[in-house]
Amino acid sequence: MSAQSDDNADFEVEADLINPSSLINNGIIELTVEGGTPPYTYKWTDQSTSLKSNKATDLVEGIPYEVVITDSKGNSVTKSYRIEAESITEHFNGFFQPVVDNMSAVLFWDPFAAIGIYDPIIYADVKLIATPSWTAQTDEVYILQKWLKPEGSKVQKGDKIAIVKHGSEEETVTALANGELKYLVKEGNQIFDPNSTEDLIEQGAHYLAEIKYDDPVALKHPNGDLQKNSIPFIVIWLVLGATFFTVRMKFINIRGFKHSLALAKGKYDDPNAPGNITHFQALATAVSATVGLGNIAGVAVAVSLGGAGATFWMIIAGLLGMSSKFVECTLGVKYRNITEDGRIFGGPMNYLRYGLEKRNLKGLGKFLAGFFAILGVGASFGGGNMFQANQSFEILSGQFPMLDGNGFWFGVVVAVLVGVVIIGGINSIAKVTGKVVPVMAAVYVIGALIVIGVNIENIGPAFNAIIDGAFSPSALKGGVLGVLVVGFQRAAFSNEAGVGSAAIAHSAAKTNHPPSEGFVALLEPFIDTVVVCTLTALVLVFTGKHDIQEGDIEGAQLTSDAFKSVISWFPYVLSAAVFLFAFSTMISWSYYGMRAWTYLFGRSKKSEMIYKFLFLIFVVVGASISLGAVLVFSDMMILAMSFPNIIGLYIMSGEVREDLREYFKKVKSGDLFVKGKTA
Q: How far apart are CA 561 and CA 657, in angstroms?
């Protein structure tokens, strides 16, 4: 424990620092204050702790927390405390938390707010009054029995304004702010009916009144910090890049879609072309690395944060991302290197180094390639491995209690399964993903379509909620800006367009024409975001599970409950899908990481085996223990890969456009190999 000197000698503060177990992020600081004039307020640096609370919980061990204690006369004292880390995992977590915070400061920095283009603070014009005791899981009808204040009257916080009835219970509703009262429901009418399609789908159907503030009020976190919208730099970087490549390639995401389907189906597969795997296998390998937990849990979080409207912006970002994938995967094939024994080395490391060297930018190329490779190795061990093992174990152990406490053995089994596949290299990985990805995607898509089909009468209200939510959401969802950023962020994080990882898988494809693989690759964001992410969002919206209050269930459990509302046994299928999603992501990322590793440490078979051994150890570590900030850090490395990659893509985009022009000439003239007949 460390404490700063008192600002006011009248205060005596005793702190009880509790580290209840070896688990991470469960530290407790409880204060006892004497002196000054009660009551006291407690301004913690932990944003989730209330100003009224002398007790902060769920704290990270090993890092300092400050609290400013103020009495009723404005006298204050500042204290700083640190809960000592004891276990190895707590030490790791405590070490990486500041690293994560610093990395977040870069990746999620908001340049527009920094230069004053807009005010990032979230303001509310009205205070919405929710139905007491309502939850998204309710099966009771709520009725506005009686208004206690006339509409348009000025009310004070705490005034009794209405009586609500549900079942045999009556509840009194009180005003939550000072201002002018506006009715949203007439006396005697239903507020919320769980059997009503419109009530289930409409955002905020459980609100019965609103109080208009005299002046807009800034929204705050429990600790008193102002709530802010932000447009993260990483999202701007990815979306601007995707928009630039869409325009630069003359909307290749749209005009090339039909040709990309023909390529993926194998129409142009030349068995004599250089490479190891087919167009479809390359697509399946890359899709398996992106379609994962983010499509199930991540989308649920995005839709619960941004509302139904986030779905619209998710689709837009997914469509734009198709162009980024086209550019990076075209270059991945163009600058690949095939050794005499048939091994292929390609991806951003190659085109950043040799593509820029061709432009007399050798120094920049070597730096960007090396930086990308370092991030790629870290991302493969973390976001592409430990994160998948950790989260899949958590989700599966929640569904199957027998797994609880057996993370190590779960990790060992998964490591054996992953090892069997990755020892065989890209051919083995491609064969497995070529079978697993279509099956798991089909099961998930069919399940989603069944849920949507059963609730098809909700189609009108659902799409109204999506469009209204995209362009006129409430301040509680952060306004249009907040919803747009949530949608773009989910899409960018999910499909990895612009990150460069997929270019490593596609560089192994059998083809004589680099742009052909770019066409195949542009299907990935379409499958990952426009199809799978959107279907998850629609399932949540169609079943009314998108409109939750803070503190309600979220993430994968929310998606699971949405499916369960129609197909009672589907959560078990979803658990199996989660495992397959995680498994396929791990085997694909093992290949990405190995290519980054061999770029840094040499291309020998021994170097590859060392990497594979380390990768399998990290599978067990990821499943065995909670790593908190370590996992967040390693997941961020995937996003950071986009910095060196997109710089290179900008510089080489003109070259890709020329290659595309030449390729289209060959398509039109019939010079390409076509399966079943000579070109």
A: 46
